[in-house]
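[recover] target loaded
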C-alpha cells in the first residue's frame, strides 16, 4: 500500500521560492567584482533568477544542457545557479584556479553550451576560447558600463542580457532526479571526474547540512560562504542559506585576511566556512592588527585537516566555535561534522581538542564504514585505520560518462580514497589519503597526524609530510616546513617539539625548510608535486642504514 501524501518533487527552484516568499527581505550582500558592496535580497534574487531562466530559454538552452560558470561568490552567480536549475539545465561550476589546459579539458568534457564569466576571468578565457568549440555564448557578469572590449563569442553584459526579458516566466516542471549541477573533482592524478548532482540530492543535502548537529543554520544567522561556489558545490551553502532564510554575505574576488575580516565585522557574520588556508590568512592578519571577532559564533573548517593550533586559537583567543568537517565533491559534499555528542559534552582542555581534531560524525543521510583491502569491516576503536567508504542519497553513484567506476561497489558503497579510524561513538578521523599514507616497515604512518603536530609549533606556518624512499624501511617520513614570516628555526628545535607527542617510530627522519608548499586548485597540499620535488632525497637515516 502506498502512502497518501503529496508527491512534491524536491526541486531546487522551490528553495529560492521559499526564500523569496518567507524571507523575501533578507539581505544578500556582496563585495562586487567591480569593487563596491552591493545589497539585494531573496525576493530580488528570485525575480532576477526567473529572468535568467527566461533568457536562457530564449537562447535555446533546454533540459539537460550544461551551462558553465567561471565566477566568484556573488549575488549574480547565485541568480545564475537558480535560473539555470529552474529550467532543468545544469550549472557547471568551473574552478578558475585550475591550469588553463584543465579548464579546456573540463569544459569540452562537459560540452557546456554557454558560460557565465566574471570580469576577472575574461583575459584568461580569451586565451583559450578557440579551444572551447561547444560554447555558443559568453555572458559577462557585469553591466554595460563595466563591459570590457572582448573577442569572446557573442559576449554580452549580464545586466543587458537579462534586461531583454520581463521575468514573466514560470519554472519548468520535471522529475526530482533530474540533474541540477555539476562539479569536477580536483583530480590529483589522471583527468578530473565529473560529479552530477540531482535536484533531489541537492535539496536533501541542504536539509542535512542545516541540521543542529551539522551547521545548525537558521534565519537568525548571517552566513559568509568564503568557500567558493566552484569548490565542491559550495559546501551546500548556496542552497542551505536560502532554505533557512539566512542573511548571506558574499566575498566576491577578495579572500585575503583583511578583506574577510572587514566583512565579518561590518555585517556581524555569525557563521562562516572555508578551508584552513583561508583561516591561516585571517588569523595571521588578526595577530598583526589585534582585531577581534565579537559576532562570529561558528566556523566550519574542512577540505583538508584543521590544525590543532587553529582550533585552539579560534576557540580560546576569539571565542569562536570550530566545527571540523569532512566531505568530498562526490558527497555534495558533507560527510561528517565534529559537533559534540552527549558522550563528549563534558570534556575540556586538551582532551576536548583531541576530539575536535577528528572529522566528526556523519549526519542522517550518510552511511559510513572502514574496511581492510578485502572489504572486511574494521572495528570502531579509534585506533585501527582502514579504507573509508560511504553511501547515501547525496553521494555519487557514478561519475559523468561512467568514468572511474572502480570507486563504486555493487552494494553502492563509494570508496572515498581516504584512510580513517572510527571511534566507539561513531566519530571518524582521517589519517591520510590512501595514496599519501607513509608505508614504513609494513606499518602505516599518518602524514596528517604529523602535519598537525608540526603546525602546533609557534614558528611553523605550514607543514607537509611525505614518504621518502628508505633502504631499510621502504619509506620514512620527511617533514617539509614553511616558517612564519621573519622566523628562523633548526631541525632539532622542530623535532624536539614533536618528541613524545607521537609514536617514536613515526618521528620524521628529517626536516626540510622551504619557502612555499605547492597547493592544488582547491587549497590542498599537492603531495604528488612535493614527492617529485623531493625525489631522490637522501635521508640522514637512509645513509646510516646502508
Ligand atoms: P574535494 O572533493 O576537493 O572536497 O576533496 C575531498 C578530499 O579532501 C577528501 O577525500 C579528503 O581527502 C580531503 N578532506 C576534506 N575535508 C578534510 C578534513 N577535514 N580533513 C582531512 N582531509 C579532508
Amino acid at each position: 500500500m502506498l502512502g497518501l501524501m503529496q508527491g512534491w518533487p524536491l526541486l531546487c527552484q522551490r528553495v529560492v521560492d521559499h526564500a523569496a516568499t518567507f524571507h523575501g527581505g533578507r539581505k544578500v550582500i556582496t563585495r562586487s567584482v567591480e569593487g563596491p558592496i552591493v545589497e539585494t535580497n531573496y525576493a530580488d534574487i528570485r525575480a532576477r533568477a526567473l529572468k535568467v531562466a527566461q533568457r536562457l530559454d530564449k537562447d535555446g538552452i533546454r533540459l539537460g544542457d550544461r551551462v558553465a560558470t567561471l565566477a566568484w561568490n556573488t549575488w549574480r552567480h547565485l541568480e545564475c545557479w537558480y535560473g539555470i536549475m529552474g529550467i532543468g539545465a545544469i550549472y557547471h561550476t568551473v574552478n578558475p584556479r585550475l591550469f588553463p589546459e584543465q579548464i579546456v579539458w573540463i569544459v569540452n568534457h562537459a560540452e557546456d553550451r554557454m558560460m557565465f564569466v566574471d570580469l576577472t576571468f575574461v583575459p584568461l578565457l580569451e586565451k583559450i576560447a578557440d579551444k572551447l568549440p561547444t560554447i555558443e555564448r559568453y555572458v559577462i557578469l557585469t553591466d554595460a558600463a563595466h563591459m570590457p572590449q572582448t573577442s569572446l563569442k557573442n559576449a554580452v553584459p549580464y545586466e543587458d542580457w537579462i534586461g531583454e526579458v520581463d521575468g514573466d516566466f514560470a519554472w519548468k516542471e520535471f522529475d526530482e532526479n533530474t540533474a541540477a549541477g555539476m562539479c569536477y573533482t580536483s583530480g590529483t592524478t589522471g583527468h578530473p571526474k565529473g560529479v552530477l548532482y540531482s535536484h533531489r540530492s541537492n535539496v536533501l543535502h541542504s536539509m542535512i547540512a542545516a541540521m543542529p548537529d551539522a551547521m545548525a543554520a537558521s534565519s537568525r544567522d548571517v552566513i559568509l560562504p568564503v568557500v567558493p561556489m566552484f569548490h565542491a558545490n559550495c559546501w551546500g551553502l548556496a542552497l542551505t542559506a536560502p532554505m533557512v532564510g539566512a542573511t548571506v554575505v558574499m566575498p566576491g574576488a577578495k579572500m585575503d585576511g583583511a578583506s574577510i575580516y572587514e566583512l565579518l565585522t561590518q555585517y556581524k557574520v555569525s557563521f562562516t566556512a572555508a578551508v584552513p588556508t583561508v583561516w591561516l590568512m585571517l588569523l595571521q592578519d588578526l595577530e598583526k592588527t589585534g582585531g577581534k571577532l565579537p559576532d562570529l559564533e561558528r566556523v566550519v573548517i574542512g577540505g583538508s585537516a584543521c590544525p590543532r593550533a587553529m582550533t585552539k586559537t579560534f576557540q580560546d583567543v576569539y571565542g569562536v566555535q570550530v566545527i571540523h568537517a569532512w566531505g568530498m565533491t562526490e558527497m555534495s559534499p558533507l560527510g561528517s561534522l565534529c559537533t559534540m555528542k552527549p558522550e563528549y559534552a563534558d570534556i575540556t582542555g586538551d582532551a576536548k581538542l583531541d576530539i575536535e581534531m577528528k572529522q566528526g560524525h556523519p549526519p542522517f543521510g550518510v552511511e559510513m564504514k572502514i574496511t581492510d583491502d578485502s572489504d572486511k569491516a574494521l572495528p570502531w576503536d579509534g585506533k585501527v585505520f582502514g579504507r573509508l567508504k560511504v553511501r547515501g542519497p547525496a553521494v555519487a553513484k557514478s561519475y559523468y560518462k561512467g568514468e572511474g567506476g572502480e570507486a563504486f561497489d555493487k552494494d553502492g558503497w563509494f570508496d572515498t580514497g581516504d584512510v580513517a579510524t572510527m571511534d566507539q561513538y561513531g566519530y571518524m578521523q582521517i589519517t591520510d589519503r590512501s595514496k599519501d599514507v607513509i608505508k614504513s616497515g609494513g606499518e602505516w604512518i599518518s602524514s596528517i597526524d604529523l602535519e598537525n603536530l608540526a603546525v602546533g609549533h609557534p614558528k611553523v606556518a605550514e607543514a607537509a609530510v611525505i614518504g621518502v624512499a628508505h633502504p631499510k624501511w621502504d619509506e620514512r617520513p620527511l617533514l617539509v616546513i614553511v616558517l612564519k614570516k621573519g622566523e628562523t628555526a633548526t631541525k632539532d628545535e622542530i623535532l624536539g617539539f614533536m618528541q613524545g607527542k607521537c609514536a617514536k617510530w613515526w618521528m620524521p627522519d628529517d626536516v626540510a625548510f622551504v619557502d612555499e608548499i605547492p597547493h592544488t586548485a582547491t587549497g590542498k597540499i599537492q603531495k604528488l608535486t612535493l614527492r617529485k620535488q623531493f625525489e631522490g632525497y637522501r635521508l640522514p637515516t637512509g645513509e646510516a642504514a646502508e
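[recover] notes: Residues 86 and 180 are 9 Å apart (CA to CA).
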